[in-house]
Amino acid sequence: MCMVKYSKAIGHQDSKCENRISSLTADRDALRDERYQLKLDSINLTKEMEVRDTLQEEVNRLNLNEPCQEGWKTFNGKCYYFSTSGVTRSWESSRKYCKERGADLVIITTKEELNFVVQSYRVTWIGLSDREQENSWKWVDGSDLIDDGFWQVGEPNNHQNDEHCAEVSRSAKRFNDVPCERKFSWACEN
Ligand SMILES: [Ca+2]
Ligand SMILES: [Ca+2]
Ligand SMILES: [Ca+2]
C-alpha cells in the first residue's frame, strides 16, 4: 500500500509513491477509455437491435397470411380499408376516420393501385386535394401529384370554384375533383 510519507523536506512525497499514483492514474484513464468505448459499442448495438426488430416485424408481417388489421385488405405489401357499403362521409371526415386508425386516405401512385381501389365502390374519396392552393394538387402525405395521367378528361375543372377534393369512380377509373363536403365511400391506406 502506498502511504504518503514525507521526507525531511516537508511536502515531498517519496518517489515510490509517485510512481504508484501515476500508475493508478494511467489505469484510471485506461478504464475511462474502455468505458467510453463500451458506451459507443452499446449505442451501436442498440441501433442494430432496433434495425433487427424492425426487419423481424416486417418479415413476420410478410410471412403471415393476414398481415393487416382485421377487416383490412392487403395489396402489394400495404394495408387498405374500404368503408362499409352504404356508409358515406365528407372528405375531411373520411380522412379523420383513417387517421384515427393509424392510416390516411389512400394515395394512388400506380395504375395497379388505381385499379385495385376503383373496384371497391362506385365513388371513393382518395387522399388528394388542392385545398391549400388552388390547382396545386397534393397527397395527404404532403407530396405533389406527379403523375397527372389519372384525371378524367377535362378534370380537374374546379367547377364553380368549389372543387378541392378528389374521388375515383369505378365507371371512369379516373380522378375527378368535387366539393369536399360531398359524401362518398372512402379508402384508407396504411
Ligand atoms: Ca399508395
Ligand atoms: Ca380546386
Ligand atoms: Ca370536377
From TrEMBL:
Kindly provide the name given to this protein in its UniProt entry. C-type lectin domain-containing protein
**Which Gene Ontology terms cover its molecular function?**
carbohydrate binding
Q: Which residues form the C-type lectin domain?
A: 75-189
Under the heading PROSITE patterns, the entry gives: C_TYPE_LECTIN_2
Q: Which organism is it from?
A: Cyclopterus lumpus
Asked if Secreted is a keyword of the record, the answer is: no
Q: Which UniProt keywords apply?
A: Lectin
